[in-house]
Amino acid sequence: MSARRDELTEVAADAAIDTACRVLRLPTIRDRHSEVAAAAARQQAGYKGFLTELLSLECDDRETRRKTRLVREAGFPRTKRLEDFDFGANPDVPAALIGTLARCQWVAAGQPLVLIGDSGTGKSHLLIGLGTAAAEHGYRVKYVTAAALVNELAEAADDRTLTRVISRYGRIDLLCLDELGYIELDRRGAELLFQVFTEREEKNSIAVASNAAFSEWAAAFTDPRLCAAIVDRLTYDAHIIQTGAGSYRLRAAAARHQASGS
User: Fold this and answer.
1) Helical (H) or strand (E) element with 18
2) Does the pTM exceed 0.85?
3) Backbone φ, ψ for residue 184 (5° rounding)
């Protein structure tokens, strides 16, 4: 009978732990307490050692889940990591500087980053990779193309919710703005974008990828004064990286074609 009572007590304990962990939202402890308890018994660990191991596992998993959530909420269109970037094929990109930026002190300082180069030179890869690194460091990140952001702001202005939308973009730790300069913006679109830049100025970071040099931005921002003001806000205390003029994608495609034909 004693063995039976012990078995029931064990079952009841497991049920109580399961219920408590659900209430306290401790999924790792709920899933792994039996495994850790068995290991503690084999190692003759004390109660504090057992509890320390359980809590450490929960903290580690919680941090992993938080990083995953922040990356997901950033809205990146595809997965791109800095460790997958081919610096050998993109010699214009300074690997040491990218490594420094990956530590995210520039995000903590609210500094801008501008990536400029032709299509296919790795701008979006670097933008998404640095944004992912920032999210995994615990920063709130949002990726959006310039066209999508302007459209969202225009719709918000029509719906009289512009102030709320601009405030929301202002609170993000790092705004990753892709494809700036790909399309021409009318005065209204440029003014709306300018409001977002002004909201974030010297407070939160913005990273921009553009296929046009600063001298060519006047073609995208039809108002010269607005163009100058936007350039001023994006370049003050900024990290500016030129990714080059030769398309890596075209070179890689040509190499594959040549290899398949040989």
Assistant:
1) helix 2-24
2) no
3) -80, 135
Intervals of the chain under pLDDT 50: 1-5, 253-255, 257-258
Query: 10 Å Cβ neighbour count for 233?
Result: 18
Please give the Cα distance from 68 to 189 (Å, whole number). 33
Q: Answer for the pair 188, 221: CB distance below 8 angstroms, yes or no.
A: no
- C-alpha 110/C-alpha 107 separation (Å) is 5
Q: Which token pair is 68?
A: 């995953």
- Torsion angle defined by CA atoms of residues 168, 171, 175 and 180, in that order, rounded to the nearest 10 degrees: 50
Q: Is 114 exposed, middle or buried (0-12, 13-18, 19+ CB in 10 A)?
A: buried
pLDDT tens, 228-256?
A: 888 998 999 999 999 987 665 555 544 45
